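ligand=phosphoenolpyruvate
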Amino acid sequence: MRPNLVAANWKMNGSRADNQRWLQEFRAAPAHCETVVCPPFVYLQDLVQGLVGTAASVGAQNMSDRVAGAWTGEVAAEMLIDSGASWVILGHSERRAAYGESNEIVAAKVERALAAGLKPILCVGETLEQREQGRTQQVVAEQLQVVLQRCPAAQLLAGAIAYEPVWAIGTGRTATPQQAQAVHAAIRSQLAAQDPGAAVAMRLLYGGSVKPANARELFSQPDIDGGLIGGASLVAADFVAICAAAAR
Ligand code: PEP
C-alpha cells in the first residue's frame, strides 16, 4: 500500500513568532503519517531546527531552474538542500498563473530538483473555465506529459504529484471525492502507459480546500494518497487533524 503523504504549503504567510507558536502546537501532537512542511524560503532553517525529533520533513515552495550563478533573486536546488530542505513544491498554479511558469519551465525545474537530490511535488490542475469546457483531463495530461518527457515516471517516484484544481484552491470549494478520484485515476493511467510499476507506486496528492472535515473522505479514495494543504495548514491543530485523517 502506498504510504499517505501530507504536505503543508504555507505560501507567503508566517513570521518567526507565528512559526514558533505553530511548531509548539505541532510538536505537542505529532502527525501519524509522512509529513512535509513548506514555509517561505527565509524560514526554512527555522523549520528544520524546529522539527528536529519529529518525523516531519521540510520543503520549499519553489526554486530556480538554473544552476547557481548570476540569477538575481533566485534560489538554487543545492541551496535548498544546504538549508535542510528535502522537498520542493513545483508548478503550483499560483506560480503558473502569476509568474508565467509554463509546462516547459516546470519540467526544467523538476529535472533540476531531481538532479540535485530534492523530492519534487509536481502540481497539476485545471482552471474552472477549462473544467467547464470539458478539458480537465486534457489539460492535466499535457501538464504531466511535458514533465514525463524530461523526467521518466521512475524518477518522479522520488517525489509526488499533486492534483490541484485551480477553482478549488483557497476558495473553500473542494472537488468532490469522486471528481478528484476521476482525475487521479486518469493520472495513474497516464503514468502506467510509460511505466506500470512506477504508476502503482506513485503518490498522488489532492489539493484544494482540504480541511479536517473533508480530509478523511478524500483520502479514502483509491487513488488519493494524501494531500497538499494550503490555508488549513496554517492552523497547527487543523493540519494535525488532516494528518490524522491520512494515517493508515
Ligand atoms: C494550495 O495552495 O496548494 C492549496 C491546496 O491551498 P488551499 O488548501 O488553501 O486550497
